[in-house]
Amino acid sequence: MIKRFGTFKSVATCAVLAGVALSNTAFAACSQLSATQVQAIQKGMVDNLESRAATQLYEFNVSLPATADIDPDLAIGGTIATAESPQIGVRTYIMVCINGGELAWTFTSANRSATVDGAYETGVPGVGVKVSYVNTGDPSLLEFTTKVNPTGLPGQEYFIGLGARGKIVFQFVKTGPIASEATVTLPSLARATATSPVVTISGSGSMKVKVLPKCAVNANTLDIDFGTFGPRDVSTTSGPTRPVNFNLTCSGPTPPASITATLAATPDTTNRKLIKNSDTGAQNLGIQLKETSSGKMLVPNDITSAIVHLPGGAKQDAFALEATVLRTGTAAPTTGKIDATATITLSIL
């Protein structure tokens, strides 16, 4: 939005500026606010402005996420992480224009990515960044130029402000092979310049980028057969038990730092620490799943019961569990099958 500030200081000045504007449009220009102009806006001495916020240099600061874990199969151009600055909050005036002008949003020293359009290198091989200014419309991807068209009488001063919803968005993207671990910092990245800088864009903190290992289990499905047993073979603390063993093997530039196993299943209605048996199978029975070595029980849909392994640099890890059929409640079990399905999810960092 363009707003008028003040009036011409004299007829002579008006005539000179008007003459120059008519004969040579090179005098169209936008510049940084003077300290006097900033003070005048802040004190409400300028008519018809939307706010009293003004500054000679507006600073967008984007806090980088502390970590970014990357799938080893992430494609070139794929998003690694995003971050954004706080919204401006209130229209803030940053420059004054006479006879129009332009505001150039550019990177300060970054190089364009050779593999991903619109991305600039961060200094870390394989990690690029796209920077956008977002207000009420579509995002404007750096680099771009904002045109300010001539408005009003030649020589008239108009203030230009950043919208209240304005913010800067960083989109980190993969531009090529990435080392197993790397750290990205962006202390000074871009700026918007009229005849002098009026906006700076920088990142605060650092982002640790890690390429996760690619892992797979040796068996995606395990069928556990408890065999045939009678009521005397099962109690609330012991019963038919079978091993549930599987191995996790990883490849890629880094071994897993941790592997977390959680259980998803329908809990028994009487003892919610057990897996519910099918409604069409034997009743008053549930299935307990726990780690053999530690005795730690995996409880259905309870992340606090997760089993965590720390491979210590190894790219292979074994899970040795056991499933046990137990009584639930005081009623005697009925005849029927043990028929239940559960999913063990492994989260790898």
General description of the model:
This protein is mainly beta and 349 residues long. It has 2 domains: 2-211, Immunoglobulin-like, CATH 2.60.40.3310; 214-348, Immunoglobulin-like, CATH 2.60.40. Helices cover 6% and strands 41% of the residues. It has 2 helices and 27 strands. The strands form 6 sheets. Strands 19, 20, 22, 23, 24 and 26 form a 6-stranded antiparallel sheet that branches. Strands 1, 2, 3, 7 and 13 form a 5-stranded mixed sheet that branches. It has a 5-stranded mixed sheet with strand order 4-17-16-8-12, with no helix packed on it. It is elongated and about 100 Å long. The protein starts with a strand and ends with a strand.
Note the main attributes of this structure:
6% helix; single chain; 2 helices; mainly beta; six-stranded antiparallel sheet; elongated; 2 domains; Immunoglobulin-like; 41% strand
CATH architectural label of the largest domain: Sandwich
CATH topology of the largest domain: Immunoglobulin-like
Rounded average pLDDT: 89
Overall body shape: elongated
The helix content is under 10%
Radius of gyration of CA atoms, rounded to a whole number: 33 Å
Number of domains: 2
Which strand-content bin applies to the residues?
35-45%
CATH level 1 name of the largest domain: Mainly Beta
Main beta sheet, described? 6 strands, antiparallel
* Model regions low in confidence, pLDDT < 50 over at least 5 residues: 1-26
Termini separation:
49 Å
